[in-house]
Amino acid sequence: MIRVEKAELRDSEEIGKLFFEVFSPIYQKLFKYHLKESTSSAISRLYISNADMFIAKDKNKIVGFASSVKSIFSLWKNPINIVLPSRYLFIAPVRLRDFGKPLFLTLGVDESYRGRGIGVQLTNRIEKNSKEQGVVELFAQIHLKNELSKKLLINTGWSLAAKQGFLLLFKKKL
Questions:
Q1: pLDDT truncated to tens, each residue of the chain (174 aa)?
Q2: Domain residues for 35?
Q3: HEC string of the chain?
Q4: CATH number of the domain that residue 167 is part of
Q5: Number of folded domains in the chain?
């Protein structure tokens, strides 16, 4: 049985490994960037410390993660000593007028666990948590070629808000 729970700093290394497994091939294919496992762990610590991050667990194994922020500015409220490849980490919305709005940052599921509804569970948890914080509209930004995320968002009630270059911005009223 898969449980979804709030991530804690002690989970950061395991989340970082899964982040690396999920996003490294994507970064290489789309951006010609070699994501490092140490960068993935640092990103997971940043999100756990400064965003709302949830994990999906099968027994004691982390098999998925998702994170969101009420404002992208909150990622820098408690900065950690980390150098990120910022030109490859597109965390700012494609439309400047959406900068500072609630953003669904990341979603990743272990490849061997895909197709079991874990992405939907994590998406629902992010939406529920955001709504409990008073968020009325949530945004998600994905790469144009990210068909899995596009399908997940559409199937869970999100709508396309904007397209700019190779990025799509989705939104959902909560």
A1: 899 999 999 999 999 889 888 877 766 665 555 667 777 777 788 788 878 999 999 999 999 999 998 876 666 655 444 444 433 333 444 454 555 678 888 899 999 999 999 999 999 999 999 999 999 999 988 888 888 899 999 999 999 998 988 888 899 999
A2: 2-173
A3: CEEEEECCHHHHHHHHHHHHHHHHHHHHHHHCCCCCHHHHHHHHHHHHHHCEEEEEEECCEEEEEEEEECCHHHHHCCCCCCCCCCCCCCCCCCCHHHCCCCEEEEEEECHHHCCCCHHHHHHHHHHHHHHHCCCCEEEEEEECCCHHHHHHHHHCCCEEEEEECCEEEEEEEC
A4: 3.40.630.30
A5: 1
